[in-house]
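Design a sequence for this backbone.
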């Protein structure tokens, strides 16, 4: 039985396959107790690359695991989330196979099996036998509960299922080896996953006269903040959802003061070019429900009941889904009546159920509660996140949806 050596470092350089900023045992323990990221490296004698590497970041509720073959290629990736004080949940597991010694690490056309799991028992399994270049086979992930959860270590992470007759030396028996001296921080450091952020400069898009540049349309200017309608929210509970979502509207957990609020759109104008001919271009990349007059200094993701940011994969965000390229802001207490009117308008042609307020946006009213629904369009189907803007004092100032795919807009 061969002993696996355990060492610690500040980070892992994924490109160079080596640790960055070696740590002593005591330094690693301090990072562990403070919830700061650090890595645990499991090495076997005679191998130039490790067996396994863990990135531990309790402050991010995250432990990641990479397993390497003898050629330094990743064969297994595990994404674990600390959802309970003593247990880690297996959020994602990726297995990779290589057809030959010459196939590069994580080849886009290589064999890959991805399993995504959720704590409520749901899960999906995707088999890509030819990677991104071919089709994929999707099934339900039938993973037993016992394999979805792993115990949390008091310190560090044990390397589970090390193959080949290896046993792991107790953490602390092997301290950090001397390494590379002073070096600049590499761009390829492995980092904990972060939830998605707005891809556009939201504050800048709400300033008339501000100029932007885009690969699609070149230079564009914020011409105005267009008033769509005034939305009445007497309950203080706000829904931002697909207007035809009958059963489970996406109601924000954030409450707003009962009242009336302007719903607005940022209007950008510019010129397009096709075969040498210039033509005017107008884009409305976001809609905003204005709650307060203070400037927005921070943006955060709008959440609904059941959303858990600890489960989000890197760059992902919660949002409302639509298959009709549209959404609404609505008073939650009247949702059944309000959404029913929208369905009657579209499905039965009942023009008395709702009215157009401007540029194709519909408005419906619940006479009993006094609440409104106002619709808007997105640039396509899919999931559209909701962003909450807060003032310097933390007060909610705006509720915003990015409605465009012009994610390359940059201020000039």
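Sequence:
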């Amino acid at each position: 039985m061969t002993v696996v050596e355990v060492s610690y470092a500040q980070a892992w350089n994924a490109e160079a396959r080596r640790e960055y900023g070696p740590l002593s045992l005591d330094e690693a323990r301090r990072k562990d107790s403070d919830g700061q990221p650090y890595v645990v490296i499991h090495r076997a004698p005679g191998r130039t690359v490790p067996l396994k590497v863990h990135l531990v970041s309790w402050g991010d509720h995250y432990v990641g695991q990479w397993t390497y073959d003898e050629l330094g290629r990743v064969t297994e990736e595990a994404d674990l989330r600390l959802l309970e004080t003593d247990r880690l949940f297996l959020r994602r597991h990726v297995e990779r196979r290589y057809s030959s010694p010459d196939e590069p690490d994580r080849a886009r056309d290589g064999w890959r099996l991805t399993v995504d799991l959720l704590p409520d028992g749901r899960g999906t399994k995707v088999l890509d036998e030819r990677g991104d270049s071919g089709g994929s086979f999707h099934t339900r992930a039938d993973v037993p509960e016992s394999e979805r959860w792993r115990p949390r270590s008091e310190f560090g992470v044990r390397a589970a299922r090390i193959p080949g007759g290896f046993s792991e030396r107790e953490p602390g028996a092997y301290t950090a080896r001397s390494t590379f001296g002073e070096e600049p921080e590499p761009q390829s450091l492995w980092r904990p996953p972060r939830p998605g952020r707005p891809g556009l400069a939201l504050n800048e898009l709400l300033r008339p006269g501000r100029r932007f540049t885009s690969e699609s349309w070149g230079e564009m200017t914020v011409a105005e903040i267009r008033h769509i309608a005034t939305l009445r929210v007497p309950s203080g509970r706000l829904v931002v959802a697909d207007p035809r979502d009958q059963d489970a509207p996406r109601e924000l957990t954030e409450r707003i003061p009962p009242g009336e609020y302007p719903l607005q759109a940022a209007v950008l104008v510019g010129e397009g070019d096709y075969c040498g001919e210039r033509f005017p271009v107008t884009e409305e990349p976001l809609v905003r429900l204005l709650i307060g007059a203070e400037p927005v200094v921070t943006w955060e993701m709008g959440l609904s009941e059941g959303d858990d940011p600890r489960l989000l994969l890197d760059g992902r965000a919660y949002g409302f889904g639509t298959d009709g390229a549209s959404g609404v802001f609505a008073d939650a207490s009247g949702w059944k009546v309000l959404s029913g009117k929208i369905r009657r308008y579209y499905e039965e042609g009942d023009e008395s159920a709702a009215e157009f307020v401007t540029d194709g946006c519909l408005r419906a009213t619940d006479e009993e509660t006094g609440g409104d629904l106002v619709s808007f369009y997105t640039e396509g189907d899919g999931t559209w996140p909701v962003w909450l803007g807060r003032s310097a004092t933390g007060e909610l100032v705006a509720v915003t949806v990015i409605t465009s795919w012009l994610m390359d807009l940059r201020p000039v």
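The two ends are 63 Å apart (CA to CA).
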